[in-house]
Amino acid sequence: MAEKLVVCPYCGCGCSFYLVTKNGRATGIIPSNNHPVSRGALCVKGWNSSEIINHPDRLDTPMVRDHGIIRPALWEEALDMAANGLLSIKNKYGGDAIGFFASAKVSNEENYIFAKMARAAFNTNNVDHCARL
Question: How far is Cα 61 from Cα 79, in angstroms, rounded to an integer?
Answer without folding.
Answer: 12
